Amino acid sequence: MTKADNMLSILWMLRSGRRMTAKQLAEKLEIHVRTVYRCIDSLCASGVPIIADSGPNGGYRILEGFSDSPLLFDGDESKGLIHAAVFAREAGYPHSEALDSAVDKLKRYTNEKQLDRLERHGGGLSVIYPPIDGRYRVFLQMLEEAAGQGRTLEMEYDPGKGGGSPSRLFDPYGIVYWKGSWYAVGHCGYRGEPRSFRVDRIRALRETEGRFERPASFSAKDFLLGTLLPDSGSEGLETVRITAREQVLNELCRHWLFGHALTERKPEEAVFRLEKSTLNTYVPYFLMPYGTALTIESELLVRRMAETTSRMAAYYETMLTRFESGKDER
């Protein structure tokens, strides 16, 4: 018999509920007792909660209730499930309670040594996200279930520009978690086209009797990135070459905007294709913390950096003058 056959035979004999010694197992299978020890070790490593009782009436047995456990996970799979539950819970995943229940079930069918290992791994990972209120979680669950069932929802949405927007029918094709926020992607009945919506700006969701079929080739993730990231063929792009130490450039390229706009990379040089509108607004403020660590080859961006830093310096100079005037008066 192969090792796998021996392991399966030992598993079935122990699942009968009887306590059996290594010698008894070896005699039943007509194998060496050392082979039994190796099979027991392999079964424990794969997640089977085998208990070894010492003494005159000792032997091996399986933790009571193990027969109710539908799956076996090895150590890395168990650790991955526990860590996934931590991430999901903190990120507001709509079915995190079900995932926590699965983790509790996993822990229920483990022996003391396995449980201690799982608890140590679970306590070794922390995730920090903004707090998520109960309504937000309810909306995420409604959107995910509607996407799976093909059910149309009625949505009230705040676009964040002051004031509300008309109530609309919405066919959710999927939900996407990106950069700390959840997005709902689907067909907007008000606009008559696919749109993406920030879930934290949804004011109300209601189920309807409407049904829809999601396009077979539609990708919610690709659609969202296509709306948030610049079009590589756009004429409104500027080539920006930045020279810096390798570690500095590595950090810069981790940012979503720069990472997706990267066109060429060397150890101490990176070339980006960035929208001119972001160079005039967002990018200068993002690059300020890097100070003089960057050498930038883009007249447009350098000009905007100079203007922005000068305006900020003037602002704080004015503030400093007020402090000094107050000291003179005293």
Automatic annotation (TrEMBL):
Species: Cohnella cellulosilytica
Official protein name in the record: Helix-turn-helix transcriptional regulator
Helix-turn-helix type domain location: 8-61
InterPro entries with a match to the protein in the record: CBASS_pafABC_assoc_protein, HTH_11, WH-like_DNA-bd_sf, WH_DNA-bd_sf, WYL_dom
One Pfam family named in its UniProt record: WYL
Chain ranges of the WYL domain: 140-206
Lineage top rank: taxon: Bacteria
